[in-house]
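// run 5 | inverse folding | seed 20
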């Protein structure tokens, strides 16, 4: 069951949809079309009049925070202004498309047993290729092991589900709290799901339903994307493993990159050198310099 099968034939009064948007109005229009009739709240980090117009046309609540809050803070902004207090919350990227039937199946899976914090569907890109939707939580040990060619010995469980299409249990939100706003882009869902995991909740991928994820629909270039991605990683590791945990991971990545720099030529070699340099300088520090520039936003 793929997520672009037409408009919602019936909405759920116990699911609210939250979209954090930044530009790309036509992608947003495509995301909203299948979920007409749902309670939808849009937080517009770009303050774009066309985004507001589309929200009004689709019957969605529109909020302009007058700043680019990033994803996590944008979600919290919407949660503070919920249309359906107590309802489960579907986080939906503006470049993702999910059918009402898929949302219904996700909700069934969310409540099939107690203590499931969040569920997400399988996802495909526009070309039909599958996106990886579950990832192991970052740990310093995994980076150290990879640096000495022993990465296969490190457990890849437990895992989190990516946030581009993610249905979150209202009871888990109440217990765990909202998103950590120190995360600007990337890893905010990993942080929230990790906190839920530590509180005894589970996060589950529902593999028998599928959403469409265009991917990078409002992104900047790949180099900046890498910076934001790894800045999220740095924040996660510093928060959950402290300064030392981050340093172990950071320098494991730098040292582990040396063979790649020596072996690879051309684009792969340049990419390896750029990654080493990014971690040597510190992704959060590099991200801070980029965020001073206008028009900064990337999607998962």
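// decoded
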């Amino acid at each position: 069951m793929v997520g672009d099968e037409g408009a919602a034939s019936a909405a759920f009064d116990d699911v609210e949809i939250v979209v954090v948007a930044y530009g790309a109005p036509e992608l947003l229009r495509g995301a909203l079309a299948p979920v007409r009739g749902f309670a939808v709240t849009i937080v517009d980090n770009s303050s774009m009049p066309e985004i507001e117009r589309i929200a009004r046309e689709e019957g969605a609540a529109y909020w302009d925070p007058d700043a680019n809050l990033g994803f996590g803070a944008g979600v919290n902004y919407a949660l503070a202004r919920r249309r359906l207090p107590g309802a489960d919350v579907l986080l939906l990227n503006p470049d993702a498309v999910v059918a009402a039937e898929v949302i219904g199946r996700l909700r069934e899976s969310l409540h099939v047993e107690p203590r499931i914090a969040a569920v997400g569907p399988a996802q495909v890109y526009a070309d039909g290729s599958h996106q990886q939707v579950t990832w192991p939580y970052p740990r310093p040990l995994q980076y150290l092991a990879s640096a000495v060619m022993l990465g296969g010995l490190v457990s890849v469980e437990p895992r989190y589900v990516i946030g581009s299409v993610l249905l979150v249990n209202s009871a888990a939100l109440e217990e765990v709290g909202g998103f950590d706003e120190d995360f600007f882009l990337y890893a905010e869902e990993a942080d929230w799901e990790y906190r839920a995991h530590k509180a005894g909740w589970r996060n589950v991928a529902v593999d028998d339903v599928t959403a469409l994820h265009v991917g990078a629909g409002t992104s900047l270039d790949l180099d900046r994307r890498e910076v934001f991605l790894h800045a999220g990683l740095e924040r996660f590791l510093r928060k959950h493993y402290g300064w030392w945990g981050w340093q172990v991971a950071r320098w494991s990545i730098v040292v582990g990159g040396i063979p790649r720099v020596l072996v690879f030529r051309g684009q792969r070699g340049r990419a390896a050198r750029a990654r080493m340099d990014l971690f040597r300088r510190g992704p959060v520090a590099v991200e801070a310099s980029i965020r001073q520039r206008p028009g900064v936003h990337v999607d998962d």
